[in-house]
Design brief:
Belongs to the alanine racemase family. The chain is an alpha/beta fold. It is about 30% helix and about 25% strand. Helix 8 links the parallel strand 6 (about 120-125) and strand 7 (about 155-160).
């Protein structure tokens, strides 16, 4: 055994099926950006389609092309285009492959239209995240230009969408404000003569917690992989984490009371104990800010990380036990066998589970289970 990431594709399929039933009659998009949130873009997209995903979503044009080249032929949306996409021909290839491409400005819309024959275009409006999308003041100009292109047969406007900023906090006033602004933006698009195939606003948390925002389509990223997008809000949707990270123990040895462990001696043994060496570190995505905070499971027993996380390894307190080299260490997983979850690692590091699963990798091998469909 070598350090590895094990991805349960059956869990992804089941999660997507569960979410699709929850949001019906809205359609469901599984988002596989950032290499499928660390789970593998092609494999995750295939499992999501098998689980019933109507759409797949990616951030970038190159990500969309990876999926098309791997054989995905279903509805596919990307939303983060760059000038380089037009310069190197990627945008033209995406248009040729029927990828829905998002426009934020009239200028970018014109660039997409120039990239190929009647591209499929979606328009994004910024309703309060202040990230991608047309500002409300600029929205009328964008929908007017889009209507011109569509009426002239130069483009097909397939969708209008936006993105919540605070959907994991269901009582946050921004949620109502954003949904109201989105409805106003839809009305302006209709006045301009646009009749998109889909309108969508809800991300994972909103899809679960805010039924009124489901509209025609929901975009589900994190939840497709079995991680809770709103871990502090009870909701009863049962999802299974698809990722387990494992490594063999490299070494165990005794450490005397008073000895310091790892760089800077930020942990000093307060008793005679034993420690184990786990061959994965921040070079593999184990957060350095998890030093003296993370836990792992060694042969099913929780063990705390002691001292600083190093580039290639971490040290864990074995409490006097001396398991042999090769003993299984579960860094995180679904929690079935006492191992921490990605959410627990996120809490320990003061971050979110999104970051934990997307950062893990480096030299870790990725292996797939449940690939029987």
């Amino acid at each position: 055994m070598r350090p590895e990431i094990v991805v349960d594709l059956a869990a992804i399929r089941r999660n997507v099926t569960t979410l699709k039933r929850l949001v019906a009659p809205a359609a469901l998009m599984t988002v596989v950006k950032a290499d499928g949130y660390g789970h593998g873009i092609v494999e995750s997209a295939r499992a999501a389609r098998q689980g019933g995903a109507d759409w797949i979503g990616v951030a970038t044009v190159p990500e969309a092309l990876v999926l098309r080249e791997a054989g995905d032929e279903g509805p596919l949306l990307c939303w983060l285009t760059l000038p380089a996409d037009a310069e190197d021909g990627s945008l033209s290839r995406a248009v040729e492959h029927g990828v829905d491409i998002t426009a934020y400005t009239p200028e970018r819309l014109d660039q997409i239209v120039a990239a190929g024959d009647c591209p499929r275009v979606q328009l994004k409006v910024d309703t309060g995240l202040a990230r991608g999308g047309a500002a409300l003041a600029d929205w009328p100009a964008l929908v007017a230009r889009a209507a011109e292109h569509e009426q002239a047969g130069r483009a097909r406007i397939t969708g209008v969408w936006s993105h919540f900023a605070c959907s994991d906090e269901p009582d946050h006033p921004a949620n109502d404000e954003q949904q109201a602004r989105f409805e106003q933006a839809l009305a302006r698009a209709e006045e301009a003569g646009l009749r998109p195939e889909v309108t969508h606003l809800a991300n994972s948390a909103a899809a679960i917690l805010r039924p009124s925002s489901r509209l025609d389509l929901v975009r589900v990223g994190l939840a497709s992989y079995g991680l809770d997008p709103a871990p502090d809000v009870p909701h009863g949707t049962h999802l299974r984490p698809a990722m387990t990270v494992r490594a063999p123990l490299a070494l165990s040895k005794a450490v005397a009371r008073g000895e310091g462990v790892s760089y800077g001696h930020t942990w000093v043994a307060d008793r005679d104990t034993t420690v184990g060496l786990v061959p994965a570190g921040y070079g593999d995505g184990v957060p350095r800010h998890g030093s003296n905070a993370l836990e792992v499971a060694v042969d099913g027993v929780r063990r705390p990380v002691r001292g600083r996380v190093c580039m290639d390894q971490v040290v864990v307190d074995l409490g006097g036990d001396l398991p042999g080299a090769g003993a299984e260490v579960a860094l995180f997983g679904p929690g079935d066998h006492g191992e921490p979850t990605a959410q627990e690692w996120a809490v320990a590091c003061g971050t979110i589970s999104y970051e934990i699963v997307t950062r893990i990798g480096g030299r870790l091998e990725r292996r797939y289970e449940g690939n029987d469909e």
